[in-house]
Amino acid sequence: MQKLVKGIHQFQRDIFSGKQGLFQRLAEGQRPLALFITCSDSRIDPSLLTQAEPGELFILRNAGNIVPPHGMTCGGEAATIEYAVCVLEVRDIVICGHSHCGAMGGLLDRSQLEKLPAVADWLSYAEATHRIIAENYGHITEHEARLTATVEENVLVQLENLRTHPAVAAALARHAVNIHAWVYKFETGQVFSYRPDQQQYLPIEAE
Catalytic pick from 98, 130, 146, 165? Predict the structure, then answer.
């Protein structure tokens, strides 16, 4: 905790003072560029990864970067998505998975979830991911490769779940928002974006 308190003092002394004008403008309202949906994993910092300034990202985080389909639960995810699209009018929505995801590891090996009933229940919203891997990736047996495939497929599954939300469906229909599937490999700093035309993830720098 002392490190966090020290960090607050350093922020106030070294960072806030140099960007006071920005923070004063933010006090008047926000107009973020994108809704960024990602995992709660402490190894991901969306603003650091994208070099976004305060006010540029509206961030939604949970275990496994999951988006429950519309109507499946009355939770913060649906409210956050609706607010981002209808009120903040974000132009882009990114769902970003990441390497070595513990939630996806639990999806592959459910014995890890025996004493985590809340996590197991939450991962039911990734059941389609589990089935896709079980029925279509039998040829991949090496653990890390199988986990990578799970992370990648899960982002695509959650992207389809995102489409079921009425605010998103309506915005997509009038071409008011774009949706993106990303995977961040934190050990190398690479970010891969899914290209529907090529049906594969490619490094963003190649786009």
Answer: 98
